[in-house]
Amino acid sequence: MDVRDLIQQYRAGNRDFRGVNLSGFTLYNINLSGANFYRANLSKAGLYGANFHQANLTEIDFTGADLTGANLSQCDANWARATEATLNGAQMQQINMAEAHLSRARLFEADLSEAILSWADLSWAKLYEAQLSWANLAGANLDRARLVAANLNEANLVEASLEAADLSQADLREATLSFANLSGATLRQANLSGANLHDANLTKADLAGVQLKFANLINARLTPAQLDQARELEGVILPDGSVYAL
Hints:
- The protein is largely without helices or strands.
- It is built from two helices and no strands.
- The protein has helices at 3-11, 224-229.
- The longest helix has 9 residues, at 3-11.
- The chain is elongated and about 70 Å long.
- The chain starts with a helix and ends in a 17-residue tail after the last helix.
């Protein structure tokens, strides 16, 4: 199948494109909403501005594809492969990408609010100013990811790995980070007010200027020297269960 066939069949009402191979093809601004691309190969395809709203993208191959500004909202994309894909500015609200491969993907200013990314691989991904509020990132691999100024307000990061990740100026208010690995992470000027960090590993994390107001640090691994770097410690529950005294 080539692009012309795809467009003609979609316009004729066909929505079943399971297993199609369109690797390397250009489909800029194409409308494919609601289509079934189960196990399709769109690796290295040019999909700038494409509309996949509510499409079935389960196990799709987007490796190296350009999805800048694409609409992937409310798609099922479990186990999708999008390693080194470009998703800058993509609309990905409520997408289900559980256990997807997004290592080294570029997601600058992408909107992943309420997305399901549990156990996904986002290591080395670039998520500068991305919207991840209310996203489910439980168990996700975010090692060395760049989340500078990202919005993770009320996100679920239980058991997530963020080793050496850059979360400078990130919004993590009310986020759940229990049992998360933040060893060596940079959290400069991040806002963790009300966040749940019980049993989190903050070994060697940079907490300079972090807001920790009313955060829960019970059994968290960090030193008093690290806490001294933080600001706004009012109401913080310390690792030993005591409440920080001003």
